[in-house]
Amino acid sequence: MPDTARYFAYLMVLALGCGGDRSPGSGADGSGPARSGGTLLTGAGATFPAPLYSKWFDAYAKATGVRINYQSIGSGGGIRQFIEGTVDFGATDGPMTDEQIAAVKGNVIHLPTVLGAVSVTYNLPTLGKTELNFDGRLLADIFLGRVTRWNDGRIAALNPGVALPGEDLIVVHRSDGSGTTFIFTDFLSKVSPPWKGQVGRATSVNWPIGLGGKGNEGVTQQIKQSPGSIGYVELIYAISNGLPSAKLRNSAGVLVQPTLKSVAAAAAGAELPPTTDFRVTITNAPGADSYPISSFTWLLIRKEDPDPARAKTIHAFVAWMLEPAAQRMAADLHYAPLPVKVIEMVQKAIAP
Fold first, then answer.
1. Whole-number pLDDT of residue 176
2. Would you place residue 352 in the very low, low, confident or very high pLDDT band (cuts 50, 70, 90)?
3. How far apart are CA 1 and CA 311, in angstroms?
4. What pairs with residue 300 in β-bridges?
5. Residues 334, 335, 341, 343: what is their CA dihedral angle, to the nearest 10 degrees?
6. What is the mean pLDDT of the chain?
7. CA distance 52 to 304
8. Does pLDDT of 8 surpass 80?
C-alpha cells in the first residue's frame, strides 16, 4: 500500500477509536507508569501546539499523578530556556540550529510530537468567512509590502467573482521568537526568491512591514481587532476564534485548505533516514492533496540526563504520548497524528 494510503488508513483507525480503550497512561500491556505522587516536570516553548499540550498534560496528570507545568512562551523562548537548563524540556516548531545544539554540546534529541498547519487568516468584515485563495509568491509580496491593497489585481485574479474591498492590507506577524514564524518563512523562502534573499527563514526575522503580536494568541487578537488585516497562526487558533483560513496553492498547483487530511498528506511523504535527528521540514511538500504550510513540532529532551529519575519520567510521558488514545486527542484539536513510521522511530530514540 502506498505511504499516503497507509497513513490515511491509520488516521481512520484513530478516528474510530481502534487499538484498544486502555486508560490514558497505560502501556502496551496496560500496566502504565507507576503513579509518582505528584512528580512535577517543567517545560516551555512553542505556542503552536499549546492547546494540545494543555489537554495532554491534564490527561496525563489525572492518569499518573505526574504534573507537567508548561509555559507557552514561543519556540525561541523554549530553546533559550532549554539551553540555559531552567526547564526539564523545551518545545519548538523550528528545530534548533547547529550553533544552538553546540551550545548544549550536542546533548539534545528533537522528538516529533504531532503535526499541524499554519493558517493564513484575515479580517475582512465585508466578506465574512469567505475563503480566499493565495499562492506563495503572492503571500511573500504581501509580507514584503509589495502588494498593499485588498483589491490588487493579483489577489483578484486568484479570487474571481469575489468583491474585494479597496482598503489597505494590514500585515500582522509574530513579535517574539516563534516556530510558527519559522514554518511560515521556511515556506516563503522555498517559493519566493525575493523573500529568501531579503528576509529568509528563522524563528525571528526582520519584518519589512506589519504589526507584531506575541504568541499565536497575540497575532489572533491583533487580527480580530484590525479590519483589513492578514496574518498567520496555527490552525486551531483560527478555528477557535471564528477566523477564516485561506486556501493555498501547493507544489502541485492545487488550491488546498488546511485540514487534518491535507496535513497528513504533507507528512506522508516525509523521508527520514535511519540516522535522522528529526530536524526535517515538510513545507511545500509534493502531492496534490498536501497543504503547503504543514510542519512537525518537537519536544527537546536531553540525550544524557544527569538526573536519571527525570529522564525516566520524561520518557514515560513520551511513550504515553505516542499511543493511539493520545494521538486521537491531537486529531480532536485539528492536529494531524504522527505517521506510524515516525512513531516507531521516536520509540526507538527513547528506548533504554
1. 92
2. confident
3. 37
4. 90, 110
5. -120
6. 89
7. 27
8. no
* 3-11+35-114+273-279+295-350: in CATH 3.40.190.10: yes
Q: Model pTM?
A: 0.85
Q: What is the pLDDT of residues 163-217, one digit of tens each?
A: 999 999 999 999 998 999 999 999 999 999 999 999 999 999 999 999 999 999 9
% of the chain beyond a pLDDT of 70? 89
The pLDDT tens digits for 286-310 are: 999 999 999 999 999 999 999 999 9
| Domain ranges for the chain | 3-11+35-114+273-279+295-350, 118-261
| Mean pLDDT score, 275-280 | 93
On the question of a common fold for 3-11+35-114+273-279+295-350 and 118-261, the answer reads yes
Tell me which architecture the domain covering 118-261 has in CATH.
Answer: 3-Layer(aba) Sandwich (3.40)
Distance spanning both ends of the chain, measured CA to CA:
32
> In the block, which residue shows the cell 512535577?
40
Q: Who's near 195: CB < 8 A, 6+ residues apart?
A: 140, 143, 144, 185, 188, 189
Q: Can you tell me the mean pLDDT for 113-131? A: 94
**Three-class SS string for the chain?**
CCHHHHHHHHHHHHHHCCCCCCCCCCCCCCCCCCCCCCCEEEEEECCCCHHHHHHHHHHHHHHHCCEEEEEECCHHHHHHHHHHCCCCEEEECCCCCHHHHHHCCCCCEEEEEEEEEEEEEECCCCCCCCCCEECHHHHHHHHCCCCCECCCHHHHHHCCCCCCCCCECEEEEECCCCHHHHHHHHHHHHHCHHHHHHCCCCCCCCCCCCEEECHHHHHHHHHHCCCCEEEEEEHHHHHHCCCCCCEEECCCCCEECCCHHHHHHHHHCCCCCCCCCCCCCCCCCCCCCCCCCEEEEEEEECCCCCCHHHHHHHHHHHHHHCCHHHHHHHHHCCCECCCHHHHHHHHHHHCC
What is the grid cell recorded at 226? Answer: 484590525
